[in-house]
Write a sequence for this structure.
């Protein structure tokens, strides 16, 4: 039995990992755009960014995915399953990520900005050379957690019939009817995929706290 | 494209299903509050196997998808003689999943208690149970109430996942309405707007609560 099911799990795992990576990259950019947008001097940008963040944090990934996949076609926008999945996952995680970006940037002490101004740096130089390097380090553990949440979120795409790990498992289960083995293996596979991220976050947190305070 | 007539026609049905969504949220939250506290206490236990088990459970549940855990509870347990209704399976799954998050919240609250409190309890000859019940928990729970409130909102937003194990809450109702009429736009938009209004307004309430707790 295992010889039959493991290759299909492998195919599903590839889709799950692909989805996670694509969405993580897109979410990263969205998070920075929206995070900086909320700190912008221009009111219109702030309102736009805040609306995006509140809408996508106020509803769940599940609703967003179904809306993009089933409701958008009524406006004439038909997205392929994979794209719909990546779009929903990254828009959702981007909204959460923007809060990480915003909160770490405002947590960089004010003296740093003042010193940069005193040194006659341009706003862009201040952000790039002084604020971001300090904020990025603080963001890392939170972004790691977000990637794990995203990996877990990918399971939902099985409900719009994208053939990820969970979808493969449900199909296998309906053909060979061995839920105990199939769903146990499925849980373990997800755990194994997320393990490097969990370890990575621990390691970074440990490194960051070393020699401080 | 958007039909208001159809919207008004399906709105009462979706609103009626909101009862199931809300009761599932609160029952699951109660499960998470209790199991979360048990997990926190188990992780602090001096009995090594117990603390290792609690730790392993938290790590495993936090790192695997809720959807798969629900499938496990709903499809695997009946194989071993434990059949649960979609509602019970749903609240157990959602509750257990978030109990691991809440156990971290409790842990944060407990670890912020100054060591002097423990020492004073010992000096006054409090039994371990009294120390927890009268000294530690009353001081560590109130500061984390806003965080618990935020998790309640998160759980509320997660309830659509329960539709995957055939619980007829608002998302499942919307799906069924959509598949009858081949119009998903109105049904899913209503669900989205409903979640947005309810979760946004309750998050404002939590923020107010937070400010008030900080002022004290």
């Amino acid at each position: 039995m295992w010889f039959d099911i493991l290759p299909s799990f492998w195919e599903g795992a590839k889709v799950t990992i692909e989805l996670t990576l694509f969405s993580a990259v897109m979410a990263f950019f969205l998070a920075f755009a929206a995070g900086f947008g909320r700190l912008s001097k221009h009111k219109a940008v702030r309102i736009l960014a805040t609306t995006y963040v509140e809408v996508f944090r106020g509803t769940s990934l599940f609703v967003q995915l179904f809306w993009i996949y089933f409701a958008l076609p009524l406006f004439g926008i038909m997205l392929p399953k994979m794209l719909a999945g990546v779009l929903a996952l990254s828009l959702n995680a981007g909204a959460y990520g923007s809060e990480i970006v915003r909160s770490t940037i405002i947590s960089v002490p004010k003296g740093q900005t003042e010193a940069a101004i005193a040194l006659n740096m341009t706003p862009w130089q201040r952000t790039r050379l002084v604020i971001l390097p300090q904020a990025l380090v603080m963001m890392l553990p939170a972004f790691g957690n977000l990637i794990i949440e995203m990996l877990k979120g990918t399971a939902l795409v099985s409900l719009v019939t994208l053939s990820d790990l969970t979808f493969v498992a449900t199909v296998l289960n309906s053909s060979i009817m061995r839920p105990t083995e199939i769903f146990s293996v499925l849980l373990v596979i997800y755990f194994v995929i997320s393990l490097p991220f969990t370890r990575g976050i621990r390691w970074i947190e440990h490194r960051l706290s070393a020699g401080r305070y | 494209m958007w039909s208001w007539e159809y919207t008004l026609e399906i709105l009462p049905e979706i609103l009626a299903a909101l009862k199931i969504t809300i009761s599932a949220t609160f029952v699951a939250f109660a499960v998470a509050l209790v199991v979360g506290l048990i997990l926190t206490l188990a992780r602090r236990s001096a009995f090594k196997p117990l603390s290792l088990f609690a730790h392993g459970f938290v790590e495993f549940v936090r790192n695997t998808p809720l959807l798969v855990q629900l499938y496990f509870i709903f499809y695997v347990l009946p194989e071993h003689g434990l059949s649960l209704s979609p509602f019970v399976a749903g609240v157990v799954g959602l509750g257990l999943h978030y109990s691991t998050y809440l156990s971290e919240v409790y842990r944060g609250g407990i670890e912020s208690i100054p060591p002097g409190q423990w020492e004073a309890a010992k000096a006054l000859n409090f039994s371990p149970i009294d120390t927890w019940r009268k000294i530690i928990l009353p001081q560590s729970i109130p500061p984390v109430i806003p965080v618990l409130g935020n998790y309640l909102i998160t759980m509320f937003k997660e309830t659509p996942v329960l539709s995957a194990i055939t619980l007829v809450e608002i998302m499942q109702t919307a799906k069924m309405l959509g598949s009858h009429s081949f119009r998903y736009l109105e049904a899913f938009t209503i669900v989205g707007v409903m979640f947005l209004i309810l979760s946004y307004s309750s998050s404002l309430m939590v923020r107010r609560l937070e400010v008030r707790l900080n002022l004290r």
